[in-house]
Amino acid sequence: MVWGSVSGQRGRIAALAMAVGAAATVLVASASPADAARRKRASGGYNPPYAAMVVDVKTGRTLHAVNEDALRHPASVTKVMTLYLLFEQLERGRYQLDTPLAVSARAAGMAPSKLGLRAGSTIDVEDAILALVTKSANDAAATIAENVAGSETAFADLMTRRARQLGMSRTVFRNASGLPNPQQVTTARDLTILARAIQDRFPKYYKYFQTRQFEFAGRVHGNHNRLLGRVEGVDGIKTGFVRASGFNLMTNAKTDDRHIVAVVLGGRSGAHRDGIVTNLVETLLPRAYAGARQTAPILVAGDQTPVPARPAVVAEAPKETPKEAPRARADVNVETTATTTPVPQARPKAPLDLNAMRPAVASAAGGSTTTPGSGPALRWNQGPAGTPASASAFASADSAALPLPAAHAARAEAPRPATVVAKAEPKAETKPEPARAAASAWVIQLGAVDDEGKAKEMLEAAKSRSGRTLAKASPFTEKVTRDGSTLFRARFSGFSEADDAQDACRTLKRNGFNCFATRS
């Protein structure tokens, strides 16, 4: 009797469940399209525009690319450029890691994510760095911008200028945090350049991107990058999200002498994005080149941006002794024959017209990069090909001045680093070699390195990957001395028109090389 009772009860429950299921089916079938759309959104229908790119750091070769040149919103990946500019100030000695940064009411009022900084308070430079790396704090980002440049708008203009100088040709910044702004755009390709540049320029400070957690004002903030410590080789660098962008991640991975950077933009969720990046790293890192690096570092040549004086109330205080002394400025000499001729300082050009840079976000996919076949064998020429008078739009010859804080204190010119890459230098007083100048109105430069053999290897690699683009171009090296240091420019001559030289540079950039075109 007991068993029969239980069995009958189970039968009634099963029948009831079937009835409820049938009723639910009827309700779903009769729901309006609007209800269906709401359910789709609730169940994960969010599908932002996607883009991705993976680059082998040692060769510059593209390992993976999807929509890599399509415009996207960077979101908080923006903060990598914010930190790039702050690291410049640290290197020059303008700031120390314990220098207090004043928090304005505007910065304190930034939308989350934020530390909760109070207007009128201060935050040390190192804490601000860690706040951006881990918490992705927008109030800290705005504080950095206002202290460095006087206003966030002025700082964003400087970010865009620096992006151009690094070769990020399609990126425009409007703020230091990545908070929503329809005009703040970038591409996956541009962000792979930034990921490499910040490591090349600031290996000492790059370590901050490996920080797992950060304690501030009694609270512990974890890093938003969930791949740290979970995916072999991953050591940074930055996540980002706004509704218009989707879930973004700039990643660096190194292991077994291999090194890649990966950028994924437009993940549907953090987990979706992380899964894509994990798969890319685990698949492509073992395929990366394991030999010596073949590409030159991505640097802003000359680093000539004048550093604005600190606001007057701060500047009157005794000058602190920098932890790292700024490098002394040096005159550049170009070796022509047996003598050297000093090169005069170039006059700065007019600032970039940033109002003209207002691209609309494109949804069209950019084509993936392929590697053409090898070109003809190289013949080497060493000697001057005409010192450039100015750089092309691909690598602006000037570093426009940092906007001044409200105090409008006098600017002081920053020292130049010893190594220059893909950047025009001031024109020498001596005339270019007549025969070469007549044969080649324009030349392109890939970079300048401290060994002639490396310069030749760079030219060989460029020619082999450029197919017919450089078939008629003549590779040559040019020896340059700077304060006792010797550099070798890697250049191609043989371009009669500016468009030809610039087209060649575009091809080289698509294949991972730095490049600028200039008159011979």
Description:
This protein is α+β, with helices and mostly antiparallel strands. The protein folds into three domains: 2-42; 51-97 and 149-287, 3-Layer(aba) Sandwich (Beta-lactamase), CATH 3.40.710; 312-519, no CATH class. The protein has helices at 2-29, 33-42, 79-92, 105-108, 125-135, 138-149, 152-166, 188-201, 203-206, 270-284, 312-315, 434-439, 452-465, 498-510; strands at residues 51-56, 62-66, 100-102, 122-124, 213-216, 219-222, 234-242, 246-255, 258-267, 332-335, 340-342, 381-382, 442-449, 474-482, 485-495, 516-519. Strands 10, 11, 12, 13, 14, 15 and 16 form a seven-stranded mixed β-sheet that branches. It has a five-stranded antiparallel β-sheet with strand order 2-1-9-8-7, sandwiched between helices. Strand 1 and strand 2 (62-66) form a beta hairpin. Helix 3 (79-92) packs across helix 6 and helix 5 packs across helix 6. 46% of the residues are buried. Residues 1-31, 39-43 and 304-438 have low confidence and may be disordered. This is D-alanyl-D-alanine carboxypeptidase.
Main attributes of the structure:
18% strand, 14 helices, 7-stranded mixed beta sheet, Beta-lactamase, 520 residues, globular, 3 domains, 5-stranded antiparallel beta sheet, disordered N terminus, alpha+beta
Shape: globular
Oligomeric state, counting identical vs distinct chains: single chain
Instruction: Detail the poorly predicted runs.
Output: 1-31, 39-43, 304-438
The DSSP helix count reads 14
Note the run of SSEs as H and E: HHEEHEHEHHHHHEEEEEHHEEEHEHEEHE
Q: What fraction of the residues are assigned to beta strands by DSSP?
A: 15-25%
Tell me the helix content.
Answer: 25-40%
Q: N-to-C terminal Cα separation, in Å?
A: 104 Å
Query: What class, by secondary structure content?
Result: alpha+beta
Number of strands: 16
Radius of gyration: 27 Å
Compute the average pLDDT.
74
Largest sheet: 7 strands, mixed
Number of domains: 3
